[in-house]
């Protein structure tokens, strides 16, 4: 093995032996179409004019004129990529033989052994020799540009790179792409990810010129921070990432020791990562395909993708910005989360009937897109081409003009595309179906389809077609020219809204790297300890003293000054447990509250704290939870006792910048409360943002804490004050025996 071979196999994004090997050996090849070995072998042979292909089966045989060799030792020369499709007990032996034959990459279709430990040992064997392993238990790899097909099934060629932990989902996406006139540039089935993981594959797609959009289905995020960096790199390269993942995990269902644990779910964390890295988290294979086709509209063969609404970009140029945002438990409409001040994309709708046009307009408006009235000059230009009484506003009602003359579709679309009054034009209704009823119209309808595509290309605007037709010749023309075609109007609206969101929402700036933790670890998560920890990081708290008896509480209240608050220590949810008494105005009230609280809670320690009554204040909640894949995740939202009821929170990876923290607060559904509601003065959002940054930094520098929370964080016109705090220690791992 030469130094060049090692570099070719292992440099970041440079998985050349996986995607475009000089030679391939399929071990377990078969001439039986019912077996995996047949599909792997026949797929490998499609690229034999480009690379050397060896087929291995100890029983002998041939396929398409290529004889089966008995084992890898019989190869006449070194092999770069070995595909392993043999029973699990034979895998390790095949891999050992492959390493001896000089292999730099292994794709293991079957499992790698009897369990995870054997698979990890297999990965160590491979990587210890400077090679790479895809799988085990994967469906294979496809690179259509490199003519590499090492998988089951047919994969249409196109511009979408797919990384998936599900083989069947990949087949579904492939079929949907083919129906839409698109396909794959690359497909990587991850399997059990014992070496090559989702981030490796994503990084390789970022560097892959034929890939214009990236789709990914990931269940196991592993090193989530590294994955987030890959998503950010894809955005910077102008390659939007459309992500699918599972909706729930054990973390979202467990009993939480704090509000943070209940509100920071696994799904919500991934949503926040996508938003800040410039990716879209979608819900289904259909959404992925619909959005990808819309993103690639007008790209054409060899042209650039990632073009958003209103612009058709050259290859490699980045869309203005991806991102999506949701609250836990409810997926927000992407277009509804536009960055403040961003103008919404304008959409013009053209329909065969008033009903379809009106419903289409409603669908796009509901997705946060603008369906504005057209100007008088544009209305006049349309009226000159339509029958008397036709609707010339927005939506435009053709009123039978298309049936009378098919070219009316192209003329009206061209007028709207070139008007400058809409970034996207949507044609909804019957077009594409005329030849179904009258085959003599097929040639004419196809010619009009070409005119529609030409109008979109010349205008530099986006044209979408929603039609009741399916798979007709005219629709084939549209798809072949890069015009998205949708069978349901809500799918067109969702795809266009997602595309516009990618274009308009900038990813968050990364926080500066933090030094390694230098602070001594925290030994407990009680209020007193947590309060002192956060005070060191700059959070302000009311004056307080900690006591154990009623007499001590009375004396503490006298020193602090009435009114005071009495809190029982050691309770995660003090208010619900009867562990908080407010507005104690004299010694008698303090003593009575202490006696009642001790009887109710049985607590041994209490805090006496100054009562804070700031006018026009808003209660926030802020917390950090340590996610097993993504590390510390900050949560901020509307707080107090209604935090979980409202569920109005936003998430971000910690640490973060003050600018990012301000943007998070302003994106809350109840953000108008912070800006001043019904004549109230605005609160100090900058002070709240600084408090969030301090909390995030404390969590990052104290990895012994699984959760860290302030609730409520009282934000008022003059600053921010933490009224309660709580921490949860991370469980200590038991040594393995």
User: In one word, what is the shape?
Assistant: flat
CATH class value of the largest domain: Alpha Beta
Q: What is the helical fraction, as a range of percent? A: 25-40%
Which regions have little confidence, pLDDT < 50, spanning 5+ residues? 248-257, 299-341
CATH superfamily of the largest domain: Succinyl-CoA synthetase domains
CATH architecture of the largest domain: 3-Layer(aba) Sandwich
Strand elements, count:
29
Cα(first) to Cα(last) distance is 39 Å
Strands of the widest sheet, in order across it, are 3-4-2-1-5-6-7
Percent of sequence in beta strands = 15-25%
Largest pleated sheet: 7 strands, mixed
> What is the domain total for the residues?
5
